[in-house]
Structures are given as structure tokens and as C-alpha cells.
Specification:
There is one protein chain. With 252 residues, this protein is mainly alpha-helical. 78% of the residues lie in helices and 0% in strands. Helix 1 runs parallel beside helix 8, helix 3 runs parallel beside helix 10 and helix 7 runs antiparallel to helix 8. The longest helix has 47 residues.
């Protein structure tokens, strides 16, 4: 069995390289909070991945950072949008983003099955004995990143799915995640199950807040457009003249 830290260093190195590239690209005008979010997410993943999780509770804490909290912070940093702004191969990247495989992978129900369904397959089958393997951590990170991107949908992709579909997918995925934690609790993994349950709820609430904020912004833009359409028409109309004003005008 390979050492955990040795097996996960390629993933941690790839995330660290992505962070360096992001910081170099973010020197141009770019929202600071996005840079802070991506940096925090990358550092969290780089630190948590090589951590020797010898107990199931430590493994669940590692899963929470690598597969949920870290991906959320990374996605909110909008690295793809930043790459489109600075990358010379922009057309090739756009073709990849608009390809049908990407469209299938970021379809929220598909991303949820790959993420939460993968966790059920891992923890409720004999595969649980492989939970500390580096390939498991790679899957958890990739599936969590994909699910978060599909729910938040802050990057330019081919098909942008509605708030109702993403919200319903998040609710169902959260329910499946919670049930999984409860079954682990019933099997005796109590501390680890509690980390999975309450920590997962916290990240899922954050995802729900992202969706709510998107809904609020959409409604604000609609009201702004409605106001901008009505205002010129109102401004173009002549001011109503009173009976006294008309009489004075005629006398002149």
C-alpha cells in the first residue's frame, strides 16, 4: 500500500501550480474577494490532502475539506473566467467549455450522482477499506469540484440551467448526504458521521446561499430593465397642462 502523503502529492502539486498561475493572472484588474476565495480553497486542499488521516474521523474531516469546502472556495474564485481573460488559446478553451462532454458533466443531476453516488459506493460497500487510497482522494476532489461548479454555475458553459433545477438537485443531494451520514452513525462511526453530517450541512447551506444570491441579482436586473424601459416613455410625454395654464396661453 503506497504512503498516503506520497500518493497524494501530485494532486497537491497540481493545485499549488494552479494557485500560482491564478495569482499571476489576477494581477490584472480582478475582484479581490475572488482571489482571496481561490487562494483559501487551494491552500486548504494542499494542506489537507497529504494529511495522514489514520482514523475515520480524521478521514471525514479531510473529505469535508478536499471534497466540499475547498471546491466551493475554488469555484467562487471563477478560475475559468479569469483564464478566458488572459489565455491566448481562448478559442480552444471556449470550444472545450461548449463541448457536449462538459455539458453532460455539469448537468446538475449527473454531477450529483457522480459526487454523492460515489460516496455511497465508497462507504456502503467493501470499497470502504480503500478509503485512504490516493485515488479515492483524487475522485473525492474531482467529483466535489464538478458538483460545486454545476450547482453554482458561475462559469461560462454551453448550457446554463435554471435555479429550480439546481436548487432541487442540491436539496436531494443534501438529503442523500445526510442519510449516508446517519447510516454510518448507526454502524458505529459516530464521530466521523457527525463530522460528515454537520460539516456537509454547513457547506450545503453556503451553496444554497449562492443560489439565493443569484436569484436576488436576477430579480434586481429585471426590475432595473423594467425601470429603464418605462422611464424614457414617461420622460418623453409632455407635462400635463392645467386649465389655468391653458387659459393663460390662449390669452397670450
Amino acid at each position: 500500500m503506497p504512503d498516503h502523503a506520497t500518493g497524494t502529492w501530485p494532486i497537491a502539486l497540481a493545485v499549488a501550480v494552479a494557485l500560482v498561475g491564478y495569482l499571476c493572472a489576477a494581477r490584472r484588474p480582478w475582484p479581490r474577494w475572488r482571489t482571496i476565495s481561490f487562494t483559501a480553497g487551494a491552500l486548504a486542499v494542499v494542506v489537507a490532502l497529504p494529511f495522514p488521516a489514520h482514523t475515520f474521523t480524521a478521514h471525514m474531516a479531510q473529505h469535508l475539506v478536499v471534497g466540499m469546502a475547498g471546491p466551493l472556495l475554488l469555484v467562487l474564485g471563477r478560475p475559468v473566467t479569469l483564464a478566458l481573460r488572459v489565455c491566448r488559446g481562448r478559442r480552444a478553451l471556449v470550444r472545450v467549455l461548449r463541448s457536449w462532454p462538459v455539458a453532460v458533466l455539469v448537468f446538475p443531476p449527473v454531477a450529483a450522482v457522480l459526487d454523492v453516488g460515489g460516496l455511497w459506493l465508497l462507504y456502503r460497500t467493501p470499497l470502504i477499506a480503500q478509503a485512504h487510497q490516493p485515488w479515492v482522494q483524487a475522485h473525492v476532489f474531482a467529483a466535489g469540484l464538478l458538483f460545486t461548479a454545476a450547482i453554482c454555475q458561475v462559469e461560462p458553459v454551453r448550457h446554463r440551467h435554471g435555479l429550480v433545477l439546481r436548487g432541487a438537485t442540491l436539496v436531494l443531494a443534501g438529503a442523500a448526504h445526510g442519510i449516508l451520514a446517519k447510516t454510518l452513525y448507526a454502524d458505529g462511526f459516530r464521530a466521523g458521521a457527525q463530522v460528515l453530517y454537520y460539516g456537509g450541512d454547513a457547506v450545503e447551506i453556503a451553496l444554497a446561499l449562492v443560489i439565493c444570491l443569484q436569484w436576488y441579482r436576477r430579480q434586481s436586473r429585471r426590475r432595473a430593465r423594467a425601470t429603464s424601459v418605462d422611464t424614457p416613455v414617461t420622460a418623453a410625454l409632455p407635462a400635463p397642462r392645467t386649465l389655468e395654464a391653458s387659459t393663460v396661453a390662449q390669452s397670450k
